[in-house]
Amino acid sequence: MDLVKLRYFQTVAKTLHFRRAAALLNVSQPPLSKSIKTLEDELGTQLFLRSKRRVELTPAGEVLLKRCEKIFQELEDAKAEVKRYSRGEKGTIRIGCEDGTTFSVLPPVLQTTTVSSHFLLGYHSTCRATNFGLVRRRSGCRNCTTAD
Questions:
Q1: Counting CB atoms within 10 angstroms of each CB, which of 36, 53, 81, 104 has the fewest?
Q2: Those residues with Cβ within 8 angstroms of residue 81's Cβ, 6 or more apart along the chain or in another chain
Q3: pTM of the model
Q4: What would the pLDDT profile of 71-123 be if each residue is shown by its tens digit?
Q5: In the chain, what percentage of residues exceed pLDDT 70?
Q6: Residue 46: per-residue pLDDT
Q7: 64: Cα separation from own chain's centroid
Q8: Class of domain 3-85
Q9: Can you tell me the distance from the alpha carbon of 129 to that of 7, in angstroms, rounded to the nearest whole number?
């Protein structure tokens, strides 16, 4: 089972039509049908009830469709999160300090420093180091530093 087969299955399951699904996926119908058959063989169960005029999901097909939607949503979420890191919208800056004055000077400054309209620099002091990170601001709360 791989993501291509799952994407093919999801498209057929949503359209309930092999020819339309093939057109949406930019593949010809025979390889699409073969891929679905291979997936059914791998899972050991029929995913579709096929007749000359209709395609319907079996109960196993309905379960797999729900799982596919979760899988592909997780992939989109992962992609979006990685992009936030690459754009500098998410991340951590770590600053180590040797004296106690920095703990009294930096936190008040950082609480008022705005990185953008959606993020604040937040801090958390532990042992002899302070961790500063981009923290998503909750809407309507200027002082909120709850991490996203």
A1: 53
A2: 90
A3: 0.62
A4: 999 999 999 988 887 877 776 666 555 566 566 666 666 666 555 544 444 44
A5: 61
A6: 95
A7: 19
A8: mainly alpha
A9: 47
- Helix pair angle (3-15, 29-43), 10° resolution: 110
Would you call 135 helix, strand, or coil by DSSP?
strand
- What contacts 111, CB < 8 A, 6 or more positions away? 120, 122, 123, 143, 145
> What's the pLDDT at 127?
44
Report how far residue 35's alpha carbon sits from residue 148's, in angstroms, rounded to the nearest whole number.
Answer: 39
Question: Could you write out the DSSP letters of every residue in 5-67?
Answer: HHHHHHHHHHHT-HHHHHHHHTS-HHHHHHHHHHHHHHHTS--EEE-SS-EEE-HHHHHHHHH
pLDDT, position 84: 83
Both tokens of residue 113? 């420093």
Which amino acid would we find at residue 67? R
* Six token digits for residue 102: 């920095």
| For the chain, domain boundaries | 3-85, 92-136
Non-local (6+) Cβ contacts of 65 within 8 A are 9, 10, 13, 14, 57
106 versus 135: the higher-pLDDT residue is: 106
